[in-house]
Amino acid sequence: MADADPASKPNPPRWRREVRLVLRILVISLPFSLFFGTLWGNGLHGYLGAYEVSLVFGFVVSMCIRANEAWVVPRLPQVGVSRVRVLIHASSYVVAGMVGAFLGAVITNYTMFHGRMLAGWRSFVMVGLFSLVFTLLFVGVSYAVHFYTAYIERVRDEERFKARVEHEIRTAAQIQQALVPHDRALSPRFEAAGACLPSRTIGGDFLDYFEVPGHRLAFVLGDVSGKGPPAAILAAAIQGMFFSVAETDDESPAETIRRVNGALVRRAVQSKFATVFHGLLTPEGRMVTCNAGHNPPLLLRRDGSTQWVTKGGLLVGVFEQAQFEEESFALTPGDALVLFSDGVTEAESTSGEMYGEERLLASLAGAASKSAAEIVKQVLDQVSTFSNGAGQADDITVLVVRYVG
After folding, report:
1. Do 158 and 111 have their domain in common?
2. With 64 labelled, which of 123, 142, 284, 323 sits at a CA distance of 20 to 30 A?
3. Domain containing 385 — which CATH number?
4. In this predicted model, what pLDDT tens digit does every residue of 275-329 receive, in sequence order?
5. What is the pTM of this model?
């Protein structure tokens, strides 16, 4: 079952929205009662009377504004010049407020003032002025509350959207880590181990190793240009291509890379390419490799000698007719091939100095006697110690394939 979306939030029930409306009217009526109570005088009694009148006007005006929002505003022009559209919408609220204020005056006249409120033309003028002032103030306050509420809701929407994106990225990171194989001993004759540390939550490096027909070990390590979700998606796609081609066909590493390159070029993923190193190891210790623009892996011999593996071709995903060469050599029991991404050699210290190939070579001195997992851990620990406190600018990926014999 998928994890629950942390950003999902049900709309509040209708009764809660109505309660909020009532509370808002009770609060908004307070400044009106202070304003008109001061004009009318008569002390506390005048303020209480003004509050009662403000409540009646507030409820009636609110209902008219609610009716305007439900029936009038949806029928007004929704496109066009922004200022004109806003002016038309604001005018509809003013008209609705005036109608509500007049109805509030009629209700107040026949309930609280017993018909004395509209006794003559002067009373009509005073009530009209009062209704206009009340409408303008109420609509102004309502607009202020509306924009404030809209702002708060927009902030909440952005927070919910951010939480949803973070949740999806965390899920993608879990999937990406699940694609990294964790079996260390695939056969009595060879072993492999790897680790990928993305610079962000998800990265563009990938590695894989698996058995193919003939009891051979196929392995691949790649680095897609860019970072974040686009690079991670393409990395997963390329990893799947290698698995599909290498497992189902008896292809050489160069031919597999050629087919993957053609598939990438045909899909025309703009400004995206990858460096890849791919190899096959037989139970007899014969290793065949092809390096498509990737950092040359280091071959650690059991006798302490080392060798950079460079033969191959250009990176994949750019040139459809690119040609790739292979390199073949025999391994003796205890020999190991160390593959890594440029995040290892380009890791920087706090002073801005790069880790480099020389430090990597020095850190692997005497490592030929260790297991594949121990060599991976040793490289990662050395890089972490070197760049401690400097932060990780690129994905760090290490894969070790060791022939047991």
Report:
1. yes
2. 123
3. 3.60.40.10
4. 999 999 999 999 999 999 999 999 999 888 899 999 999 998 888 888 999 999 9
5. 0.64
